Amino acid sequence: MSNKLLGAAAVILDSEGYVLLVKHSYGKYNWELPGGLSEKNESAEETAQREVLEETGIDVAVEQLTGIYYDPNNDMHPFCFHL
Predict the structure, then answer these.
(1) Residue 41 CB: number of other CB atoms within 10 A?
(2) Full-prediction pTM beyond 0.90?
(3) How many independent structural domains does the chain possess?
(4) N or C: which end of the chain has fewer CB within 10 A?
């Protein structure tokens, strides 16, 4: 059983192709894709949907997995979805 952290982020485009970013109120106050860590027994898709709702108030449906990455600084695998 792996102890690696899992997370998810969402790429959300408007009709003109602009990407939705959120500005965090913690850490370095970076502008980033909406997303975060998965909760226990939560799928990556569920994580993306929950995080987008929490951070933007938008209820979304997952359309397509765009990539799975590795973050060595946090020993984490974030999944990225197009919504």
Answers:
(1) 6
(2) no
(3) 1
(4) N
